[in-house]
Amino acid sequence: MSSLNIEIRPITPPEVPAIASLAREIWQASYPGIITQEQIDFMLEQRYGHERLYDDLEDAHKWLDQAIHEGRRVGFAFSELYKGEFKLDKLYIHPDVQRRGVGGQLIAHVAERARKQGYPCVILQVNKRNVKAINSYMKYGFSVRETMVDDIGHGYVMDDFVMEKKL
After folding, report:
1. Which of 28, 36, 85, 98 is the residue whose CA sits 20 to 30 A from 115?
2. How do residues 101-123 score in pLDDT, each as one tens digit?
3. pTM score of the predicted model
4. Cβ–Cβ < 8 Å for 79, 113
5. Nearest Cα residue to 11 out of 66, 58, 59
6. CA distance linking residue 92 with residue 85, whole number of Å
7. Which residues contact 161 (CB under 8 A, 6 or more apart)?
8. What are 128-144's pLDDT values in tens digits?
9. What is the rounded CA–CA span in Å between residue 25 and residue 10?
10. At what angle do helices 37-48 and 50-58 cross, to 10 degrees?
11. DSSP code of 116?
């Protein structure tokens, strides 16, 4: 399959409901078997509730980008300044266009932003059981830096690798 030609542009407030809906669709395709449905629902509300997304759009240290292919929103990447580092906080691609270069183009876009701001690397966190995502990140130059277990409340934890890509 060939690489998709996408346009990357910032998310605007009127697009927040569509991004929340896309996140739910992607998570439902990606996370069953990795985390419970209850944790999926909890994390979606925590990270993609409309108010949270509107707040993120207002934050000067966060960037919310979306990938558009032929007029259709096919993925998104959120990046932020986090504890003195440049973090790719969210990267999600619709299942029917995965493995077609959309994630790589979004990663390159985020890495270029980090480079322009003088950061030596981009970091991210990924669930240790999300093998597909880990393999994809490695393909794009990320390597595992450390492991981390983070209590996110309500009895849920994120059991993650922290990965980094040197710029």
Report:
1. 98
2. 999 999 999 999 999 999 999 99
3. 0.94
4. yes
5. 66
6. 21
7. 125, 126, 128, 134, 144, 145, 146, 147, 148
8. 999 999 999 999 999 99
9. 20
10. 40
11. H
